[in-house]
Amino acid sequence: MNKNADVIIIGAGIIGAAIGYYLAVKGKKVIILEKSDLAAGATGSCDQFVVLQSKIPGIHLEIALESANLYKQLVRDLDQDLEYHASGGMIVIENETELKVMEERVAKQCSGGLNVEILDIKEAKKIQPELSEKLVGAVYCPSDAHVSSLKVTEAFLKEVAKKGGEVYNFTEVTDLIQDNDEVKGVITPRGEFRGDYVVNAAGVYAPTIGSMIGLEIPIKPRRGQLVVTEAIPEFVSQVTLSTKYLAAKHSPEILDNVSTQSKELGVGLAMEQTQKGNLLFGATREYVGFDNSVTREGILEIIKNAVAIYPRIKHFHVIRCFAGLRPATPDGLPILGSIDKHAGLIMAAGHEGDGICLAPITGRLISDYICGDNLAFDLEPFSIKRFLN
Amino acid sequence: MGSSKKKRATDSTFDNNNRHNNKVKEHEIYLCRCEEITEDEIDKAISEGARTLKGIKKRVYAGMGLCQGRTCSKLITQKLAQKVPKEHILPDTQRPPVRALKIREIIGEKDS
């Protein structure tokens, strides 16, 4: 079976699905090829945050703000409950060192247009009564939200199919078709798929696609372990992160009084309660190749860290631990846009833990770029060029 | 702030309601009891392309509840077997703990 389309997208995670959706809305014929099943990688093994205040002030925060707006539109446009709740979010502060770091950060974020404020622990407990009183305080952002990454991905893919696009699961891309240096399509066990553009949205597997044409893509799998409890009545009403979580993500130098083990594992709190009532919390940040198993040390550190922030979780039961691999780049920003030497190939991968938050804006930007429409943001800061020399 | 718009399974259990229509559907067959997923919902997921236990889970959340699929995975495997040769249906990823564990037990605190 050989097929043609305007755009061939590799990967049916939330990023590939979002790009497919925005292209289909513009009337482009898309084919999405997925080596496993929808949301089989990072999309299906993560938390469910659309957290703005975890983004680096600057372009990272700017695109996240626009992505959050797009989510509000998607809730109206997509024919499915996305489990989206703009419930607000907190980043807890555990000591004075962290407080200083957060004061600086909040000032920058405010000037970047984000509505954030620092609360002392008494004020924070008014919003989140289960917080430990031993904490110093929390940064509060009313625009933080959460959403089901599974439902969003599924809804995008259904719209693609409705608009004449095609999605092939269990169809692994084994090679790229090139004419001189221009990428023209892909080869799979099902046959050849050709298009004007091929989008590499393969997440942690994006480098495998790159290697087919000798292109080195600096994305590495970074493991995040998480814990799920039984469903319980409302315990937290919002997404809660800890300053340590941010530190593990962007600036490890903040981590002063942290045990070596916890630091090595990159442990920081990220907690929410799902619509069904389960507490979902993590996480670690570890470079261990493609090993997605959970470890005793990792889970133990996650739980100890969480108990210090929400002491009463001690009384709930853990029903599952799991781990996902996030596609991490050296600077924490995704790789988006075209590649000089390989016309026809478009990058859209490397979002690490921001894929859920940034999926709508990624879909929008890549579709606008492919269609030659005006871009809401310059793609230059996200170009793969920043890593090539 | 404390009252959320969210409808939680547990909240509704206490209300004697079910997550769908505030009413348990009497004549439905429930394959996943923990997450209250019906046979019809499983059939729909299969018709939409699910071919593995994981694929079912990602689409309708069956097997994500308290028992982690220990009860429903065999029933769902039978359903999948209508589309996929049974010997190709792998068990879903088994993750710890095998039984639900209280957090205070994991960190070594004694019950008071």
Q: What's the architecture of the largest domain in chain A in CATH terms? A: 3-Layer(bba) Sandwich
In CATH's first tier, which class of the largest domain in chain A applies? Alpha Beta
N-to-C SSE string of chain B, H for helix and E for strand = HEEHHHEH
Give the number of helices of chain A.
Answer: 10
Give the strand content of chain B. 5-15%
CATH topology of the largest domain in chain A: FAD/NAD(P)-binding domain
Question: What number is the mean pLDDT of chain A?
Answer: 94
Report the CATH architecture of the domain at 30-107 in chain B: Orthogonal Bundle
CATH homologous superfamily annotation of the largest domain in chain A: FAD/NAD(P)-binding domain
Helix content of chain B: 25-40%
| Helix content range of chain A | 25-40%
In sequence order, what are the helices and strands of chain A, one letter per element? EHEEHEHEHEEHEEEEHEEHHEEHEEEH
Query: In whole angstroms, how far apart are the ends of chain B?
Result: 32 Å
The share of residues in extended strands of chain A comes to 25-35%
Largest interface (CB within 8 Å) is between:
A-B, 42 and 38 residues
Largest sheet of chain A: 8 strands, mixed
Rg for CA atoms of chain B: 17 Å
Shape designation of chain A: globular
Q: Could you say how many structural domains of chain A there are in total?
A: 2
CATH class group of the domain at 30-107 in chain B = Mainly Alpha
